Amino acid sequence: MKRMSIFVFGVLSYVTFFLTFCYAMGFVGGVVVPKDINSGTPAPLGEAILINSLMLSVFVIQHTVMARPAFKKWFTQWVPRPMERSIFVLTASGILAFTFWQWRPLPDVVWQVSAPAMAYALMGMSWMGWGMVLMSSFLINHFDLFGLRQVWLQLVNRAYTTSAFRLTSLYKFVRHPLMLGFLIAFWSTPVMTEGHLLFAVLTTGYILMGIQFEERDIIREHGDAYRRYREEVPMLLPYKGDGSIRMPMPRSGATAKQG
User: Fold this and answer.
1) Which of 80, 139, 223, 228 is paired with 165 by a 20 to 30 Å CA distance?
2) DSSP-assigned letters across all residues of 133-185
3) CA 38: distance to chain centroid?
């Protein structure tokens, strides 16, 4: 019963994440969902900046602290280890859902693309960014990243082993295609309002900061193997110094780990 309870908890946490992720696409893109980044009663500029920044900061703190190995080691003294990732995912999803609900819109337009072809192209790029996020998660190990693999293995009484990934597809061009996908999704819009710009700037800052923490942890675990990978593959933009697209050198059997 304990194993089944942990598994059910993991499944419910994953479903909560998936629904939150789908809502996030509509929230940023301004489609389908009842409340998006620009809808609702506009708030005074100072109030909106303060409250929106605080809510995103709570997500940043939770995400940064709970993702650290030291926290995981301490936390799993009190909760079953297979549940740790699911609790992380559920907590992050809850914070994001609250942020979407309480977001203070700032609908004044900063810039706008009026040409229909360009507007549709930007909308398409945003959806491409979301697709890159999902694709990148599966290239690492989607179900491990969101806790399902951990609770499934404990249900069938199999030991958990860390998942490494081969340097294939997007990970040959940039080290963090998942984060690049988020950046593309957040910034590609035909109508950039003050509220959307605030969201994009704050989340971009978090992504850049979070990458530094993540890579520090990966280097601590994998040492020179990841240092070599970092030297050969750029962080976010697949360009060389001369502006041309970087073409990856084939490396037989090369592996790396995404934290």
Assistant:
1) 80
2) HHHHHHHH-HHHHTTHHHHHHHHTT----PPPEES-GGGGT-S-HHHHHHHHH
3) 21
Show the domain range for 199: 2-251
The number of beta carbons lying within 10 Å of the beta carbon of residue 252 is: 4
CA torsion, ordered 193, 199, 200, 202, to nearest 10 deg: 140
Mean pLDDT over the full length of the chain: 88
Closest CA to 83 of 169, 142, 137, 5: 5
pLDDT below 50 — which residues of the chain? Answer: 165, 242-245, 247-259
* Encoded amino acid at 193, one letter: T
At 5-62, the pLDDT tens digits run: 999 999 999 999 999 999 999 999 999 999 999 998 898 999 999 999 999 999 999 9
Judge contact between 98 and 55, C-beta under 8 A: yes
Structural domain total, the chain: 1
Which H/E stretch holds residue 255? Answer: strand 255-256
Residue 258 in domain: no
